[in-house]
Fold:
Amino acid sequence: MTLHSVVARVTDRIRERSAPGRAAYLRQVDAMAARDRGSDRLGCANVAHAFAALPANDKFKVVTERAPNIGIVTAYNDMLSAHAPYAGFPAVLKDEAHRQGATAQVAGGVPAMCDGVTQGTPAMDLSLFSRDVIAMATAVSLSHDVFDAALMLGICDKIVPGLLIGALQFGHLPTVFVPGGPMTSGLSNTEKSKVRELAALGKVGRTELLDAEQKAYHGQGTCTFYGTANSNQMLMEAMGLHVPGAAFVNPGSELREALTREAVRTVLQITRGRRFTPIGRQVDERCIVNAMAALLATGGSTNHLIHWVAVARAAGIRIDWDDFAELSSVVPLVARVYPNGQADVNQFQAAGGPGYVLRELLDAGLLHEDVLTVREGGLREYTRLPTGAQGAGGAVHWEPIGASGDPSVLRPASEPFSPIGGLKLLTGNLGRSVIKVSAVPDDRHVIEAPARVFDTQEALQKAFQAGELEQACQTNGANGLVCVVRWQGPQANGMPELHKLTPSLSVLQGRGYRVALVTDGRMSGASGKVPAAIHVTPEAAAGGPLALLRDGDVVRLDANAGRLEALVPHEQWIRREAARLPDAQRESNGHGLGRELFGAMRRNASAAEAGATSW
Structure:
């Protein structure tokens, strides 16, 4: 299939824009790859320290027989459901490495926090920057520099982007990402959301709400909605960094262990094979564009409009929201997974999963097929479904996926749910922002109403509980309201997710009011049905125009035209004095729950469209 002209044009533009940085990056990758092996290159004392804890046979293998040594970087902890399964992975990986005549060491661990635990609390202010901490921890883990390959064990929101950014600093190493899989289905996401809305109305209490939440989040594995964590897994498949089809196989199954062992065999095939493919060479402009297209085709998390800008930058590649927007104009929406539909990720997998999506996009010329992957068979290998193995240690078998197993969940690219992707760019006198339209009803793509401006999400929630927002909707003549929450960007407080606002705004929308959210903060990957212009750049704390807004200003959010504007006369607008982040709020943003330690990150954070990076 011929590559679509828009995909080709966007890729060429990215390649041209990135040329100097990418060339410098590849020179570094090649220089690192050309060195002698670590155990041959390092001093004797260095080597002795590196392998002192290995069994004697392994020391002999790696030093004398010069067997490949795999570094394992793990995000294991037993608090988070998605990462708890990793407890036993190192033993399995080491055992498989031994079977293959290699060795493996746990090079280090990285932190993994859960936005589901910290949502709506001050600890959420650490969430986005935890990605950069994870990247740094990955670099520290691999800095002992005695590894011939690497395996990355991580799955959730900031963890995979952080691991990937860190791994790209060691771009000379063949690297495979090893997922853990989603938890089995519990209470449906739709039912869970209904209980949350009832709780927001005060119609059910804490006991009923907690019961619903525990039925939804009930075991090991990722949450079952298509939020940031599961979007990560889709993108890893599209980038060819997984064993094909590994993303959504449940923890604890025989197939899960077989795929984990296959990751060892895969990375060793690169290390020993004819086709040496270190991760720095593999993650090129085409690979990044494939990830972007897969995100758009599945209505994935808006967080990746920040994270993948940072990932690309780590490989010397420059992308921006214009690139996403142009791709979104031609990449169709082929998946409906909650919050963009009723299905959860287990139903998505049963219907065909990532392999179905990638096949449809490849056949439509919307992905680069000529990319390097961790498998010699290339990206087409990722269009098949792993179906089982002969014992946990046996070889994995893959089969063709065929037609969609459920047309309400997956459709062909020729008959999509929407002819365009699930994300849109908004521009105007309020700055640049993005909106996830895949879950927003068509009649809510344009909202024009007076603004109510809040400095914190807590202030908005209190106004809702006091009935002020509904009263404003009823009295302003527009039967609606645009809620603006500013001072939520990277420099202000670390750019927390504002998912706790979703139930309140959903209640208002459910009552027929035309409401929208505008913020320089983030929304969860699980959010969607209320129109939300998020990641507004430049942020208010950096002098952005949200600081000019006043209560009562009419704001127009037009997802169809890609506009976000305050309908204030230009002469009046440019004469306004910008509000300042309240001193008390600035002070509280920097104290408590470890936020003091992140002051330098807040001060040095780049804009959201530049990846909100601190490096």
